[in-house]
From TrEMBL:
Pfam families assigned to the protein according to its UniProt record, in alphabetical order: HTH_Tnp_1
GO MF annotation, one: DNA binding
Keyword set includes Secreted: no
Protein name: Transposase
Naturally occurring in which organism (per UniProt): Paenibacillus elgii
Length: 95
C-alpha cells in the first residue's frame, strides 16, 4: 500500500533539494523515500508552485473550475431535455 505524505512534508523535502543543494539520492536515503518519489514532487512543485500537493479531497483551482463547468453543462443538458419534452407535450394538446 502506498504511504501518504502531507503537503508540508513534501514541501520540506523539495526545499532540501532546491535551497540546501542536497542531492536527491542523499535525501532519499535520509528520509527513507524512493528517489523517483522526490523527483515527482519536485516536478509537481515546479509546475504548480504553491498550488502543488493539494491533498486528499482537494482540487487544484483549475480542476475545480473544470468540474464545476462540467456539472453546469450536465445540468443545462438535463434542463434542455425537460423543456423539449414539455414542448412536445404542449404541442400535442394544440392539435
Amino acid at each position: 500500500m502506498t504511504k501518504k505524505y502531507d503537503k508540508e512534508f513534501k514541501l520540506q523535502t523539495v526545499r532540501l533539494v532546491q535551497k540546501e543543494g542536497k542531492s536527491v539520492a542523499q535525501i532519499a536515503r535520509e528520509m527513507g523515500l524512493h528517489e523517483n518519489t522526490i523527483y515527482r514532487w519536485i516536478a509537481e512543485f515546479k509546475q504548480d508552485g504553491s498550488g502543488a500537493f493539494p491533498g486528499s479531497g482537494q482540487l487544484k483551482p483549475e480542476d475545480k473550475a473544470m468540474r464545476d463547468l462540467q456539472k453546469r453543462i450536465r445540468d443545462l443538458e438535463e434542463e434542455n431535455e425537460i423543456l423539449k419534452k414539455a414542448m412536445h407535450y404542449f404541442a400535442k394538446d394544440r392539435r
